[in-house]
Amino acid sequence: MASRNFYLQLIFSVILITLTALLLAWSIVNRWYFTLGLTAILIIAQVHALIRFINRTNRKIAYFFDAIRNEDFTLRFPEKVTIKSFKELNQSLNRVNGLIQEVHLQLQIREQYYQEILKQASIGIMTFNENGHILFSNPTLEKLLNYSPLNHIKQLAQVDEGLYEVFRSFKPFERRLFQLTNEREQNQLALKSTPLELDGQSLLLVVVQDIHEELDEKETESWVRLIRVLTHEIMNTITPIASISDSIIKYYSKQGKQVALEDLDQTQIKNTLKGLEVIKEQGSSLMDFVQSYRSMLNVPEPNKAIVKGSKLLEKIHVLMSSKLGQETDFQVSCDPVNLEFFIDEKQISQVLINLSKNALQSVKEIENGTVRLLAGEDGDGNKIIQVVDNGPGIPADLIDEIFVPFFTTKTEGTGIGLSLSRRVVQLHGGSLKVHSIPHQETVFKLTFA
């Protein structure tokens, strides 16, 4: 409504100026000098009034936007004016000002709400720009680093020089682990970065979490699993030795006295020899068990070189061909075909052979058993190799146990293969993970950065 009255007055003023201009022209043609002078004065007055009218409106709108930009919502335009268009314009500006003020208050409340959430978060949060200026850091981060206030990442050098180097060289979507040691305690920090764009400025959001307790829990859990398996294996070996030794002792000792040789019969001597043979076998098994443990601890550092993925997979395919059953299909695929890995070919080949053997054994008894060996890249640009089979799979209650040394569900084998394979991949700076849907698909995935 305000804009309508404004336009009507503007149109009226323009028409009036036009008519006056025509009268001025008519006076010049007819040489009506008195009318000419009067008309000239009139047209100057009308133009001045029009400019003043427009400037008053523009000035009000300019004041309005300046106040909004400066977050000054106290500006009020008078609504009791004689000119109707100005009255309606002032009312409209005051209404818009009230709405913007209400939205601004709501945004402030929401911002305070989010700020409080960030302050109470149990993980450290920091944002800094390309120049290293810290725009935000919550109390949890300052407590973790034992430093406050944080204004620039250079201050981190006073906490730990290595920590400053980590933040200085941080790249978007990067993950780091850092052990922070101070006079109070030792913290294992997990850091993750995410890029942000705010008001045309590139920022880096870094989340910092102390995972010391989680690592302690995982370490304790790993020890419990390992000790449980070790205890099981050792007890299975020692129990027969103890039982047979006790039986043999009874042959040669009665009521605490040694039995004379002439009192022994042939059956007791034969049983003694058999018992000693069993003790020897169990002792050898225990020695093999210990040797397997030593082999896992003494994995040599990888001797890395550039290896073509297609060549590596074809080599495994040739080695596995002799172990294929009549109903088993073994496939290899490398995409892209020119994919290359920086690895120790012998070590990774042994890992793939071990995983392929396990996969072939799992599909041996099923119809249309298929094992696929796939090399490629994931969404993060990491190079991967997957061993996929459609066998019975791994039950959910055992999937966390299969990488524990000496744990096995087979009737033969030491249970060292998977744990040794994972150790080899870890020495390459990668990871070995498993995903299994029983009777559908089981995937062992090797990831290399």
From TrEMBL:
Molecular functions per Gene Ontology: kinase activity
Protein name in UniProt: histidine kinase
SMART domains: HATPase_c
Record domain PAS: where: 110-149
Domain Histidine kinase, first and last residues per copy: 229-449
PANTHER family in the record: C4-DICARBOXYLATE TRANSPORT SENSOR PROTEIN DCTB, SENSOR HISTIDINE KINASE
UniProt key word rRNA-binding: no
